[in-house]
C-alpha cells in the first residue's frame, strides 16, 4: 500500500479465536502496538465475515466463532511514540533504519500463541527495489519460518536499505545499520568478531549458525534479543562514556544467545530470571574482561556497580525472594540483575579457588542437563549437586542481604578488596604475588 501502511493477510490451517500483539503501553499510547492496527477483519474457513473485537492488552477475539483468515492494515507510525517510557524501547518494537521499516514480529503479526506451533510461510509483496532483511529462510518467492514463535520473536525489515554480512566464530551475521552509527561500526564489528569465539569456548558449543542484527540510533542505548536476531539502539551523539555502556549491552545481548538456562519452550521461567539476566550480565563482564575489553579500573567499577545495584534493590524493591522478583522484572530490576550477578560472581570466585575451569564446567553441565527446561526447584537441585551445595548456600546468603562486614570478609577470600560508605562502593584488586590477585577468575590480560 502506501509507504507507511502495510496490508497484512494471515491464513491459518487451524482456526482460532484469539490473537495478540506484544503490548508495551506508554503514557502517549496506552493501547501500545495495537493502536497501529486498522481495518481488522476476520473470516471463517468458509470465507464468511466474523465479528472481531479488541479485548484490551494487545488482544483481539472473535466471540461468535473461530476464524482462519484475518486481514488488516499495519500503520508504521511507531516512530511517533517514545518506547523508552515504561516500555522496553524501540529495539523491541519498531524503527526505520536507512529507509527500511523494521519491526519486531510481535509488533506486526497477530499471533495466536496458544495454537500448536507449526512452520509458517511469509510472502512479501513489496515496492520494486525493496528487500526483506530477516533471519527467516529466503526461498525465492517466500520466506519460511521454522515455527510460529520464530515469526513473533524475531526482528525483520522491509525496504530499500541493503544489509551486509560477516562471519565470526562459526556465526554468520547479517547487519542492518543506521548510517549515523558508521563511526563506531569498526568497534562493534571488533566486539562481534571476538565474543562469539570466547562465548563458544566458555559454553562449549556454538549458540547457533546465523543471526540478523539491527543497529538503530536513539537518544539512549540498550538492546533486545530475539530467537535468531537482536537489535541494539545506540545514543546519538556518539560519546566515549556511552561506549562503555553500549559495549556491555552488546556483549550482554549476545551472551543471551548462548546462555540457554532459564527458558522452557522459548519462554523465560520467571523464577529463573536472576539466572537469565544476572548470570548473563556477570558472564558478559567476565568474558569481556578476559577478551581485553575492560581494564582493571573499569572492571573494579563494574563490580562495585553490581553491589550498588543490590543496595538500591534493598531501598526500593520488595520482592518476596530473588526467585519471586522475576515475576515483575521491571519493578524488581536490581533484585533480578544485581542479585543474580552477585550469586554468579561469588560462586565463580569460590569454585575457581580449586580449579579455574570449575565454574565454566558447572555452567556447561547445567546447560547440557536442562532437557525441556528447569523449574526453580529442579534448577537448584541440579546446581547443588554440581557445586556440593554451594549454589544454594550463596543464593540464600545473598537473599539474606549480608552486612558490609560479611561482604568484606567474603570478597577478601575471593582476592578482592571492597569498601562501602552509604551508597558508595569501591572495589580494588590488591597487588600481590598470588595469582588470585587480580582475581584469576576475572583477569584481564596482563598487559592491560
Ligand atoms: Zn538481558
Would you give an account of this structure?
Helix content is 35%, strand content 25%. It is an alpha+beta fold and 448 residues long. Among the domains are: 1-126, no CATH class; 263-442, Neutral Protease, domain 2. The strands form seven sheets. The protein has a five-stranded mixed sheet. Strands 1-7-3-4 form a four-stranded antiparallel sheet, with no helix packed on it. Strands 8-9-14-11 form a four-stranded antiparallel sheet. Strand 15 (164-168) and strand 16 form a beta hairpin. The radius of gyration is 23 Å and the shape is globular. It starts with a strand and ends in a 20-residue tail after the last strand.
CATH fold topology of the domain at 263-442: Neutral Protease, domain 2
Named once each, the bound ligands are: zinc ion
CATH architecture annotation of the domain at 263-442: Orthogonal Bundle
Strand order of the largest sheet: 15-16-17-19-18
Unreliable spans: none
- Tally of DSSP helical segments: 12
Principal-axes geometry comes out as globular
Structural class: alpha+beta
Mean pLDDT: 93
Report the end-to-end length measured between terminal Cα atoms.
56 Å
